[in-house]
């Protein structure tokens, strides 16, 4: 299996596409539809070039090349991580058998479903972010937005390749449908809830790339363990790109908190809205919203779907091979915290194999705590007496065991009236959203930055902050 990326081909790839004419033709037929989708649903801001990275190889070193590129001329392609001919299945009933290079007939429907759900989120996020270029706080941020968008577009290519190459006519139909559904569409919405929400401002963008792209990281991590080797290799390479999306989110929120802290000290008040900063309680409400909506992406706490995926070898656990158990989970148990109709919490013991969504969610929550810690450290270092918190996992949930209850950020089960009265303190209000929106004025001058966010401590690829990351018309 060649791993060099062929950029002379119409569709750059390292899967030797030219040796399979039928597949190549089918994908070349999908390509103009993708380009139409990008033109209609992708970023609205036109540019003369964005300083973007493009994958040049899939190896550990030097995989990215940086240059100014007009986004619609970006070379979206198909890149799979190196093939390991000795790879074996790490878990489930097929544990120890060689990884599959083809889709076993009995798992076809389930695998296709997982790939379609994954594929659906990628273009959805581009659609959610399409207007943000009009209000970027700096050229540096504008560049990062485009980078994330073109790579999410490439992640769509990654899933479409699998659908075309391994799932026949049905796969090709699903590939079309990925361009047909749209974020927030009343008739044909995206599959998962979080991908139909608006990403209406840049604070929401940083929160989305922190909390929602991070779900992507964990889901891709479990699909990287898949017995279906092409899916595994695709996800492994996607995860390399994903690291930058996390970075945009983490440092984006860092920079908002840093700027708010500066303004709080300068004016000696938490009420910094009048001074062009975002008050900390609004930031907390954004955290509450984006975190709780992202928790819904893990599915139900107990899931026979997840158990079947695991037993069949389709979807593993986070860092499956590093876990010290039998990788089959036939006798293990897990504890599940459950709200009860009398308003108290109970703990139930369940089979571990049924709790795999919960297991992954636990890994994700632990990771989210690291963000909260860093943002609190920024406040503490500025001598500000305020702490951010992650809300209770039951807060504001639409999926799973908590969805029928009203649960406050501190985990109290409350009645409808208490929830309605408290909501304005817990979730962004329309006043919050209007205020944050009012701050979103584009700053396109080289080296300048909006009032509500601090500049980054470093530029991209060794360039300074005041580099011309984007050429505008
Ligand atoms: N919304 O057994 P359950 C990313 C449905 S993000 C709507 O609990 P399961 C990215 C479910 O379909 C990563 N419906 O669910 C980030 C099922 O329906 P059926 C995306 C939902 O299957 C930022 C029923 O409820 N990748 O990459 O164990 C930017 C019972 O469900 C939802 C993946 O998600 C929901 N939230 O778990 C760009 C990986 N949750 O079958 C990109 C692939 C559940 O009874 N997907 N339902 O009709 C999966 O592994 C699983 O499908 C899920 C759900 C984890 C999503
Ligand atoms: Fe992605
Ligand atoms: Fe991403």
TrEMBL record:
Location of region: Disordered: 321-343
GO biological process: phenylacetate catabolic process
UniProt keywords, alphabetically: Dioxygenase, Oxidoreductase
One Gene Ontology cellular component annotation held by this UniProt entry: cytosol
Lineage: Bacteria, Bacillati, Actinomycetota, Actinomycetes, Pseudonocardiales
Record-given protein name: Benzoyl-CoA 2,3-dioxygenase component B
Biased composition (Basic and acidic residues): 321-341
EC number annotated for this UniProt entry: 1.14.13.208
Keyword Ribosomal protein: no
Record-level Gene Ontology MF annotations: dioxygenase activity
PANTHER family named among the record's database cross-references: 1,2-PHENYLACETYL-COA EPOXIDASE, SUBUNIT C (PTHR30458:SF0), PHENYLACETIC ACID DEGRADATION PROTEIN PAA (PTHR30458)
């Amino acid at each position: 299996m060649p791993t060099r990326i062929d950029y002379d081909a119409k569709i750059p790839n390292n899967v030797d596409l030219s040796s399979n004419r039928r597949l190549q033709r089918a994908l070349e037929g999908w390509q103009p539809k993708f380009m139409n989708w990008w033109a209609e649903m992708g970023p609205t801001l036109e540019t003369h070039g964005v300083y973007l990275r493009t994958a040049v190889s899939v190896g550990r070193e030097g995989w990215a090349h940086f240059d100014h590129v007009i986004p619609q001329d970006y070379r979206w392609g198909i890149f799979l991580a190196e093939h390991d001919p000795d790879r074996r299945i790490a878990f489930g009933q097929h544990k120890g058998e060689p990884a599959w290079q083809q889709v076993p007939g009995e798992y076809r429907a389930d695998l296709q479903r997982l790939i379609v759900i994954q594929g659906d989120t990628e273009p959805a996020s581009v659609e959610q972010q399409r207007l943000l270029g009009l209000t970027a706080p700096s050229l540096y941020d504008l560049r990062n937005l485009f980078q994330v968008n073109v790579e999410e577009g490439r992640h769509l290519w990654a899933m479409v390749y699998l659908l075309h190459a391994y799932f026949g006519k049905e796969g090709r139909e699903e590939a079309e449908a990925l361009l047909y559904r749209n974020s927030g569409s009343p008739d044909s919405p995206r599959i998962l809830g979080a991908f139909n929400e608006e990403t209406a401002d840049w604070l929401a963008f940083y929160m989305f790339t922190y909390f929602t792209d991070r779900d992507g990281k964990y889901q891709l991590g479990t699909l990287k363990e898949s017995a279906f080797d092409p899916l595994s290799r695709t996800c492994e390479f996607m995860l390399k790109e994903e690291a930058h999306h996390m970075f945009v989110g983490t440092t984006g929120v860092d920079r908002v908190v840093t700027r708010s802290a500066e303004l709080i000290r300068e004016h000696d008040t938490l009420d910094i809205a009048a001074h062009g900063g975002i008050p900390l309680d609004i930031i907390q409400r954004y955290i509450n919203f984006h975190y709780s909506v992202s928790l819904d992406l893990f599915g139900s706490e107990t899931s026979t779907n997840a158990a079947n995926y695991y037993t069949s070898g389709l979807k593993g656990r986070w860092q499956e091979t590093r876990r010290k158990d039998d990788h089959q989970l036939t006798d293990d148990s897990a504890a599940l915290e459950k709200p009860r109709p009398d308003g108290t919490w109970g703990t139930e013991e369940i089979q571990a194999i049924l709790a795999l969504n919960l297991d992954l969610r636990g890994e994700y929550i632990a990771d989210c705590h690291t963000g909260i810690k860093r943002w609190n450290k920024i406040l503490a270092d500025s001598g500000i007496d305020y702490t951010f918190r992650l809300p209770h996992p039951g807060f504001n949930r639409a999926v799973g065991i908590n969805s029928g209850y009203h649960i406050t950020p501190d985990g109290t089960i409350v009645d409808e009236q208490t929830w309605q009265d408290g909501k304005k303190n817990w979730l962004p209000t329309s006043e919050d959203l209007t205020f944050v929106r009012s701050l979103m004025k584009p700053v396109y001058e080289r080296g300048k930055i909006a009032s509500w966010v601090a500049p980054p401590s470093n530029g991209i690829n060794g360039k300074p902050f005041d580099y011309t990351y984007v050429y505008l018309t």
